[in-house]
C-alpha cells in the first residue's frame, strides 16, 4: 500500500500512455473510450507526453503512437526475465507433483512467448523452450491471458490481432469478435483455458493439447502457467480435476512472488 495519497494526474497521464501503447496507433476518441478521461484532458496529456518525447503525433487522423523513449521506463525491469526466474523457482518445487511438461508464458505484443519450461520424459516430441512464440486465439496460454486481462486491454489486443494475420493466419479469428468473446467468457467462467482443437489437429495431428491458468497479480496479469498433455492418455479437456488445484496453487505462489512475497518453501503436503 502506498504511504501517501496517489496523485490522480499522474495516474491519468499513465493511463493515456498505456492506452496509446496498447493500441499501437490511437486516436483521441479511442483513448477516451479506453480510459474514461474526457477528450480535452486526453489532448492535454498527449501534448505533455509529446513534449517529453514519449508520444509522437501522426497528422493523419490525427493518431498517436509511443516513441522508443518509453523503453527507458522499463530499463531497470525485464518482466519476462523476472517471470522466468520466479517461475523456475516455483516449478522446481512442484516437478514431482505434475509429471507433464510445464511452461510459463507471457504476453509479447501479438503472441504469447514461453519464458520458462520444464520438459518431462512422457513421450512428448514437441520442443517448447523459452523464446518459443505461439498465437493468442487458439492456444490455452493465449486464451487464458485474454480472458483474464481487463476488457479494455483485451479489446485493444483483439483490434491489433485483427490487422495482423500472423503465422498461419490464426489471428484472423479476431474478426469474428462475437465468437471470440463467447469463447473467452467460457474460459473466464471456468477459470482455465484449453487449447483449440483445430489448431492442435493442424499443428500436431491432435496428439497433444494444453491447459493454462492465468497468473493474477494484485494489479496485473503477470502471464500464464500451462501444462501439455497427450491425447491418448487424457482426452482433450478431460482429467484436469486432478491437476487444476495444483496449477492454481502454482499461479498463486508465482503471483505472490511477483508482487513481492517470499518464495514458498515447498509444495504443500498432499499435493
Automatic annotation (TrEMBL):
Residue ranges annotated for the IclR-ED domain, each copy included: 69-260
Origin: domain of life: Bacteria
Annotated HTH iclR-type domain residues: 7-68
GO BP term, example: negative regulation of DNA-templated transcription
Gene3D superfamilies registered for this protein in UniProt: 3.30.450.40, Winged helix-like DNA-binding domain superfamily/Winged helix DNA-binding domain
Keywords: DNA-binding, Plasmid, Transcription, Transcription regulation
PROSITE patterns referenced in this protein's UniProt entry, alphabetically: HTH_ICLR, ICLR_ED
Transcription regulation among keywords: yes
Name assigned to this protein: DNA-binding transcriptional activator MhpR
One Pfam family in the UniProt entry: IclR_C
PANTHER family: DNA-BINDING TRANSCRIPTIONAL ACTIVATOR MHPR, HELIX-TURN-HELIX TRANSCRIPTIONAL REGULATOR, ICLR FAMILY
Amino acid at each position: 500500500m502506498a504511504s501517501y495519497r496517489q496523485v490522480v494526474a499522474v495516474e491519468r497521464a499513465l493511463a493515456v500512455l498505456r492506452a496509446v501503447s496498447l493500441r499501437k496507433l490511437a486516436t483521441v476518441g479511442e483513448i477516451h473510450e479506453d480510459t474514461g478521461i474526457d477528450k480535452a484532458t486526453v489532448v492535454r496529456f498527449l501534448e505533455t507526453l509529446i513534449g517529453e518525447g514519449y508520444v509522437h503525433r501522426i497528422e493523419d487522423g490525427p493518431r498517436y503512437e509511443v516513441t522508443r523513449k518509453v523503453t527507458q521506463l522499463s530499463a531497470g525491469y525485464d518482466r519476462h526475465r523476472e517471470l522466468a526466474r520466479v517461475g523456475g523457482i516455483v516449478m522446481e518445487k512442484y516437478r514431482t507433483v505434475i509429471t507433464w511438461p510445464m511452461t510459463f508464458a507471457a504476453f509479447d505484443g501479438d503472441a504469447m512467448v514461453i519464458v520458462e519450461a520444464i520438459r518431462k520424459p512422457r513421450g512428448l516430441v514437441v520442443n517448447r523452450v523459452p523464446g518459443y512464440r505461439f498465437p493468442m486465439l487458439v492456444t490455452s496460454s493465449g486464451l487464458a491471458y485474454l480472458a483474464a486481462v481487463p476488457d479494455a486491454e483485451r479489446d485493444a489486443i483483439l483490434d491489433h490481432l485483427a490487422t495482423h494475420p500472423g503465422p498461419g493466419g490464426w489471428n484472423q479469428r479476431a474478426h469474428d469478435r462475437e465468437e471470440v468473446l463467447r469463447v473467452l467468457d467460457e474460459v473466464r467462467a471456468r477459470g482455465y483455458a484449453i487449447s483449440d482443437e483445430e489448431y492442435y489437429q493442424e499443428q500436431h495431428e491432435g496428439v497433444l493439447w494444453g491447459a493454462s491458468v492465468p497468473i493474477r497479480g494484485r494489479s496485473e496479469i503477470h502471464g500464464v502457467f500451462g501444462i501439455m498433455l497427450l491425447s491418448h492418455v487424457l482426452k482433450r479437456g478431460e482429467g484436469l480435476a486432478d491437476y487444476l488445484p495444483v496449477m492454481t496453487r502454482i499461479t498463486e505462489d508465482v503471483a505472490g512472488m511477483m508482487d513481492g512475497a517470499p518464495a514458498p518453501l515447498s509444495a504443500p503436503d498432499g499435493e
